[in-house]
Write a structure and sequence with these properties.
By secondary structure, the protein is of the alpha+beta class. The chain has a domain at 17-35 and 55-94. The protein has two helices and two strands; from the N terminus they run H-E-E-H. The protein has a two-stranded antiparallel sheet.
């Protein structure tokens, strides 16, 4: 007996357009990073989209949030500073 498969949930039902725009920005940026090492290098990237800065503990990371920022924005990476300092202090063990 065949049964009808249920429709998977649609994550953007009743969500504003900025949720869809953010999903596109995130997935294209991550795919570009995997392909080239540059999350800003994808074809068709709007000039208005935020530039994802190269990561450094002294600089910034990228915050994606459709509710607060509308899309994405660079932010200071300080909330995990103690853990990163520990990892960086052990770099000699991993020859990095």
């Amino acid at each position: 007996m065949l049964t009808k498969l249920s429709q998977p949930p649609l994550p953007f039902t009743n969500k504003p357009q900025n949720f869809i725009d953010l999903a596109a920005l995130m997935s294209k940026s991550w795919a570009s990073f995997i392909n080239s090492g540059n999350p800003n290098g994808w074809v068709g990237r709007p000039a208005s989209s935020p530039n994802w800065p190269e990561y450094s503990i002294a600089t910034q990371d990228m915050l994606f949030d459709a509710n607060i920022t509308g899309l994405a924005m660079p932010e200071s990476d300080t909330w995990r500073q103690e853990g990163i300092a520990l990892i960086n202090s052990l770099n000699f063990a991993y020859q990095r």
